[in-house]
Amino acid sequence: MKKVFLSVSLLFLMCAQALSFGLKNENLYPINDKNGGGYINKSGLIVIEQKYNFVSRFVDNYAIAQSKNSKYGIIDKRGDVVIDFQYDELDNLSEDFVFYKENNKYGYIDIVNKAKSEPIFDKTKKFKEGLSAVCIKGKWGFINKKGEYIVNPQYYDVSNFSGGLASVSNSIYKTAGYINKKGKTVLSFKDNSLEPKEFYGGLAPVISENDKACSYINKKGKIIIDSKKISPVNIYCGNFYEGLAVFYIDNNPREITTGYIDKKGKIKYSVLFSIPNDVSEGEFSAFDYFSSGLAQFTLDYKTGYINHKFQTVIPPIYEFAQDFTGDLAYVKFEDKEGYINKKGEWVWSKEREGM
């Protein structure tokens, strides 16, 4: 009997671990309507009942939720409360940490170990690659998950760490360059008007504040894609997602060419647009980055989705649309809003708010 009992116990443990692993890797989607906040799966089935005032997206295994008493806490993908509902504000959830606000200052909560720091920071950014940017008295630095300063507050602004590097600046339009996780400056810029962004896919766009011309560098600071290779005129470009980056070329004040480039700087797809009179040059947007194999595109103020072959897979009919996360995307169409799948089929919807 003892051997049988041990085998059953082991089987139960294995099943529990498999279930836990499956839950952590399953995308759950927040729904908030007159019935409350809860979650659906990719098939539109409610898997966490609508017993909250409001729920946010899951970040890995955790999400921010608001209880009926209007306080915020943290729940997991089983719907279990892991951080009690006692906070007026929670933000920057990532890497099993979240920041709370108290007396206009911010502190962090270690969700797994149920520990928290004193609220001493004026501003914070989410943990990324094990470090978080924090601001005290107008100066930014970085802490680790023990709350220790890895980089003392000294910069005018910083980006999150990405690929082991973070961009830092000493004053507005005065970029110092990139630092590593020890706080050492590993890339410097002679031109202080350059604005470097985060690294994605091994490359980062570096944008000139003077003329918005943009080049891409690798982690050694070498220019991999020069702005002149894309266009001899002013451009703007974004980060690489799924091997492609959005670019914009200003042909003239009312005309723009936009599309996607690959990591060699080759234009893979482009479209010429006339900018509407009621839209400023800097506000014009036609294409977005790729997420879960699809990217948003906007035409005549309506949004749809294209695939990596730049084919329209969901026509531009939505007044509002978010990126796909896994199998679903949140959209608004005429008198309803909710989630669609990659075929453009509704899997969950409610009456559109504000209609």
Provide the fold topology.
Elements: H1 2-25, E1 29-33, E2 36-40, E3 46-52, E4 54-55, E5 62-66, E6 72-76, E7 81-87, E8 90-94, E9 97-102, E10 105-110, E11 115-116, E12 123-124, E13 132-136, E14 139-143, E15 149-155, E16 157-158, E17 166-171, E18 174-179, E19 185-188, E20 194-196, E21 204-208, E22 214-217, E23 223-225, H2 227-230, E24 235-237, E25 245-252, E26 255-261, E27 267-274, E28 287-291, E29 294-299, E30 302-306, E31 312-318, E32 320-321, E33 329-333, E34 336-340, E35 346-351
Low-confidence sequence ranges: 1-9, 15-21
Overall average pLDDT: 88
- Per DSSP, the total helix count is 2
Roughly how many Å is the radius of gyration? 23 Å
Provide the helix percentage. Answer: under 10%
- Given helix and strand content, the structural type is mainly beta
Count of distinct strands: 35
The percent range for strand residues is: over 45%
Q: Roughly how many Å apart are the termini? A: 65 Å
Strand order of the largest sheet: 4-5-6-7
The main β sheet shows up as: 4 strands, antiparallel
Global outline: globular
